[in-house]
Amino acid sequence: MKRVFSGVQPTGSLHLGNYLGAIRNFVRLQEEGNESLYCVVDMHAITVWQDPAELAANTREVTAAFLAAGLDAERNIIFNQSQVAAHAELAWIFNCVARIGWLNRMTQFKEKAGKNRENASVGLYVYPNLMAADILVYKATHVPVGDDQKQHLELCRDIAQKFNNDFGAEVFPLVEPLIRDHAARIMSLRDGTKKMSKSDPSDQSRISMNDGADAIASKIRRARTDPEPVPDGTPAGGTRETRPEAFNLLEIYAALADATLAEVQAEHGGKLFSEFKQALTDLAVARLGPIGEEMKRLQADPAHIDSVLASGAERARAIAAPVLDEVFRTVGFLRP
Ligand code: TYM
Question: Which of 49, 87, 273, 299 has the fewest CB atoms within 10 Å of its CB?
Answer without folding.
Answer: 49
